[in-house]
Amino acid sequence: MxxxxxxxxxxxxxxxxxxxxxxxxxxxxxxxxxxxGHDVRVVMPRYRATKxxxxxxxxxxxxxxxGGGGTRWCGLVEATLPxxxxxxxxxxxxxxxxxxxxxxxxxxxxxxxxxxxVLSRGAFAVADAVAFRPDVVHIxxxxxxxxxxxxxxxxRPVATVMSIHNLGYQGWFSFDDVGVAGVSPGEARARGxxxxxxxxxxxxxxxxxTMVSTVSPTYAAEIATDEGGMGLQGAIRARGADVIGxxxxxxxxxxxxxxxxxxxxxxDVDDLAGKAVCKxxxxxxxxxxxxxxxxxxxxxxxxxxxxxIDVLAxxxxxxxxxxxxxxxxxxxxxxxxxxxxxxGERSDKVGAHIAxxxxxxxxxxxxxxxxxxxxxxxxxxxxQMYSQRYGTLPVVRAVGxxxxxxxxxxxxxxxxxxxxxxxxxxxxxALTTMRERPEHFAAMRRAAMEKSMGWDRSAAHYExxxxxxxxxxxxx
Length: 476
Description:
Blueprint: E1 5-9, H1 21-35, E2 39-45, E3 56-57, E4 62-65, E5 71-81, E6 85-91, H2 93-96, E7 103-104, E8 107-108, H3 112-129, E9 136-140, H4 147-153, E10 159-164, E11 172-174, H5 185-190, E12 194-195, E13 198-200, H6 201-208, E14 211-214, H7 217-222, H8 233-239, E15 243-245, H9 273-285, E16 296-303, H10 309-319, E17 325-332, H11 334-346, E18 350-354, H12 358-367, E19 370-373, H13 383-389, E20 393-397, H14 400-405, E21 413-415, H15 420-436, H16 438-449, H17 455-475
Parallel strand pairs: 1-2, 1-9, 2-6, 9-10, 10-14, 14-15, 16-17, 16-19, 17-18, 19-20, 20-21
Antiparallel strand pairs: 3-5, 4-5, 5-6, 7-8, 11-13, 12-13
């Protein structure tokens, strides 16, 4: 099969900057595609947080025209991902050199429409500046939803694949501001960017991309329903068979208990002695009693409604009557931060760190016995896959990618009802299995650790999706 030229346009990418799972995917999928022989280039903004990484400046100025909004002149800085995949940073300090990606402690940035219009239109200007002519442009979530429209403006019959990583974030703006993006109100309406009198970049991207992907097969089905569509079920249904669920992988070179530099001891499926060392070290780090016999449950999460953090909070009274410990890492809703901070200070069963801390996340995955994810919806989820790789059996709700990646009583524990009783019952079942059926628990742990969850399989599915999108574009 011929080599593909793939332009990957994204608003965040590990290791440079990350706010959620999108950043993990962007840091892993392009190198996996490069490893399959394709020419992949990543374009993203040059945020303040990216400036601490090694890079080189290109001797070129990139003009980004936005119609009545004028031309924004940007610098171009280049770095690489593993496998020598180039990353081009679009540099415009007024727009991107800030603390925060989409917003700060005061909320979303008021000029996000302009910021991500510059990224979306600028992706083509960057490709021109480096003499790269893509066969397909892979766009990701609402910040890149204008890319298909700009391709149309430029008269470029390039295939576009839009990945929906989380339908809950749609890119809503006042329709009166559509001119900021260099788009007329009439064109925006005609191309499906208007929703309920407002501008919705995700809807426009869904309706105008050649193909649409989501990050798990179950989530692809869920977002077509009235319950899961979050107001965009009509757009999803309109695309019909053009919406494909491709399950995410994980970067199994980064998430590998045999080599993980963040752990106090390494281990593998045939020798779990290092996992016991990790558990004791994690208990000590979080100020918990160091006990090998007590089940330690990890929680690494945004403290958000989507993640079921309110149900977990309501269940704590019952959970903390059990002989267990909780290792909690996260940030989000102020009330949740205050609750876990208080419990971390007052309870000898809760160790909490209110932060985003990648190193501690690795240590929790390795040191915990179980990992809890009571999500209301979960497009794919990565932590449940990290957990299985580390022999930490996940306890998850039966939604989205969680049900696609965790087999109940085989590689983890799955529950249906997001209620206090449902959550507590699932935890009790996991604890009973661990204590009263240790041989079965050990077999589950082995099965989880032996699963193949790397990116190569997912990259092969994306490759097929790209070829389908390219064929459809050529036919049109």
